[in-house]
Write a structure and sequence with these properties.
single chain; 590 residues; Jelly Rolls; 7-stranded antiparallel β-sheet; transmembrane; glycosyltransferase; cell membrane; membrane; pentosyltransferase activity
């Protein structure tokens, strides 16, 4: 804790981070974040029975069996805290999110310690950690009930151990942190364990001869630590396999099983098609906050964050070159991080591509699966910033990163602010898509006006992780079918999994009357089209309705003032939309 006591900068960064976490915490109901209800189901199993119920455990607030196949460490930790704090009321379960506030604060602390071991200056430390807290999903996950933050902490410990090694600290100290990190990720999440395996594999190859010499410095007690760590992990997985017949058990299958059951003839991607979708989806989920609700965001924020992160490869090779010239071993840390990340992404891609070949499922392409490498990203960014001598470049990078961080407050706090400044009504929760919008069909959503005029409508759209072309048209029609407003947008400018804003001249509405949103694209074809997100109750896989299998029914409200139609036929769903009233107005006062 001496780092925090002596370094006000670290405290300031952590306070900013916690403020961002608080925004997501306060503005999102329980179950809104990725897989939050299934995670909570296992946590409550521990609070009641001492261990996750991998045989018959239920998702929280659902009759559905749990589907998560994660190891138990996070659930045991959170469940014990839940039991000690006596958070036995459902109204208090949301406070379990605060556990990850502290876990991610520890991650930031060990990143700071890593940067100090590299003797990075304060300016570079501030800017590099700003990059991390500008990544919305790092903050959002830190404000949720989820095992990702604990996995990231384990990887941060591993990278801290490596930073000690490459800065000539005691090999014993290095070993202890690597062991601690390895045990944490192995007992928390498979993707985290794969990250550490890739890191240590590359580390052993790069440092093979030196490691033999370093190992001679170890004491007998250190080998006992190694043995105990291995026994801890092996013992856990042996128990799981003996008890449940699997190393990663779960009471039911995952979304790929449901998708295959619903769409057995779904088209399979070629490797190149899948690679393009893989890139687009990971990029989108790296730059954009997401979950079982949609988050308002600014394109400019995503663009600035994308630019900030796109500089990382250039900065990485620049700092490697400079460190080699300085005969500093630190270049090997950067090379190790880049090679192990590449190896991880290769395994990740091949694994989920084989899933697509087997089932046709196109999910599981999310950037958070490689978040174990975020601590290394911060270290590399800091080392690169420190190597920059040109003051103009320093100032420009500082402005870019600072603006990106400042704009990160928008998606975190938007809902509470916008409802005062520019209120809206509509459907913001999503759980399905209803197919491509092509020239052969129209998507429609009716609604009851809550304002006396409309100037803006937002729709939540997806591009299927590809670049599409054509024109998108949104019309507002009254009950007689008369078009009262129309707006067109170039499809190529649409971002994947994001709200798209349509602006109109101020158009009068009759409050309480019914109107129709009509979305069409006269030149879109299959494979070159977007889709409009929808919310379908009870869930998008009807064959599982009334059973304990399939996805949980989200405990969220569905817009009751209208429904979705495709070619004038009810889709038994509601498209996701927001209709804004006049600035500084309230729908109940109009």
């Amino acid at each position: 804790m001496s780092l925090l006591n002596n370094n006000k900068m670290a405290i300031i960064i952590i306070v900013i981070f916690l403020i961002l976490c608080s925004g997501y915490y306060l503005n999102s109901s329980l179950g809104s974040f990725p897989d939050e209800n299934p995670h909570l189901g296992y946590v409550l199993d521990v609070a009641k029975n001492g261990f996750p119920d991998y045989a018959g455990g239920k998702t929280y607030n659902s009759i559905k069996l749990n589907r998560l196949e994660h190891p138990a460490l996070y659930y045991v930790l959170a469940g014990i805290i839940d039991k000690i704090a006596i958070l036995l009321s459902s109204s208090l379960y949301k406070t379990l999110r605060i556990i990850n506030f502290f876990i991610s604060s520890l991650t930031l602390l060990f990143i700071f310690k890593s940067l100090h071991s590299f003797k990075v200056n304060n300016e570079s430390i501030i800017l590099s950690t700003f990059v991390l807290i500008s990544i919305p999903m790092f903050v959002l996950l830190s404000a949720s009930i989820n095992n990702d933050p604990l996995m990231i902490l384990g990887c941060a410990l591993t990278f801290y151990g490596l930073s000690l090694y490459y800065n000539d600290y005691s090999v014993r100290k290095t070993l202890h942190y690597i062991l601690a990190g390895g045990v944490i990720v192995s007992l928390t999440k498979a993707t985290g364990a794969l990250s550490v395996v890739c890191i240590l594999f590359v580390f052993c190859i790069i440092e093979n001869k030196k490691l033999i010499i370093k190992f001679r410095q170890l004491k007998c007690l250190d080998f006992i630590y190694i043995l105990l760590s291995m026994l801890c992990v092996l013992g856990y997985y042996l128990y799981m396999h003996v008890t449940y017949g699997k190393f990663f058990p779960a009471p039911q299958g995952d979304p790929s099983d449901w998708f295959h059951a619903a769409y057995p003839d779904a088209p399979r991607f070629t490797k190149m098609e899948y690679l393009a979708a893989f890139y687009q989806s990971n990029l989108s989920t790296l730059l954009t906050p997401y979950g079982h609700k949609t988050f308002d965001d600014w394109n400019i924020r995503r663009q600035l964050l994308g630019l900030t992160l796109s500089l990382l490869p250039i900065l990485s090779f620049t700092v490697i070159y400079k460190k080699i010239k300085e005969h500093s071993p630190q270049w090997r840390f950067i090379a190790l991080s880049l090679i192990s990340f590449t190896l991880f992404m290769l395994f990740y891609f091949l694994t989920i591509h084989s899933l697509n070949v087997k089932t046709g499922y196109t999910g599981a392409m999310q950037a958070r699966y490689f978040f174990g490498f975020l601590p290394a990203m911060v270290i590399i960014y800091a080392l690169a910033l420190q190597c920059i001598k040109n003051n103009i470049i320093k100032i420009l990078l500082g402005l870019l990163i600072s603006c990106t961080t400042l704009l990160s407050f928008y998606p975190a706090f938007y809902p509470s602010v916008i409802k005062i400044i520019h209120p809206y009504f509509g459907q913001t929760n999503i759980n399905s898509v209803l197919g491509e919008l092509t020239k052969e069909n129209d998507f429609e959503q009716d609604f009851i006006a809550q304002y006396n005029s409309v100037e803006r409508v937002d729709l939540n759209l997806a591009t299927y992780a590809r670049k599409n072309t054509g024109t998108l048209s949104l019309e507002i029609a009254d009950q007689s079918g008369t078009i009262i407003a129309k707006s067109k947008i170039n499809i190529s400018k649409i971002s994947d999994n994001a709200w798209l804003e349509f602006n109109f001249k101020s158009t009068p509405l009759i409050k309480g009357s019914r109107y129709i949103l009509r979305l069409s694209s006269p030149d879109s074809t299959h494979g070159n089209a977007i889709t409009w997100y929808a919310y379908k109750k009870p869930n998008p896989y009807p064959m599982y309705n009334g059973t304990i299998y399939g996805p949980e029914e989200l405990n969220t409200k569905q817009y009751e003032g209208g429904q979705a139609y495709i070619d004038n036929k009810s889709a038994e769903a509601t498209f996701s939309f927001k209709i804004y009233g006049p600035m500084w107005s309230n729908p109940f006062n109009n």
